[in-house]
Amino acid sequence: MIDMLNLDQAIKETAFLKGSPMGENMDYRQTENQKIYKNDPGLPMHADLFYYNQELEIGTVQTKYRQYANELAKMASYYEDPTPHINGWNGEELTCKM
Question: pTM to 2 decimals?
Fold first, then answer.
């Protein structure tokens, strides 16, 4: 989805996701040379959205970033895992809203 938004000429911004797992205390975990598992405590599947041309100015409305985030939210879907105790996906087919 990020790649699709990055190609949209109407949106004047591009971004990328970076995995940033968080521990039980919602602090970022060290990931270098460490394996992260989906059942680790905290938010092991957490990721941050970074903008390539980030020129944030305090006190200035950041319309292009808000527009990008709004379009991404329209495309996003949440699928609850019906069998979280089983390794792998056993739910309905995952789809992308486009």
Answer: 0.62
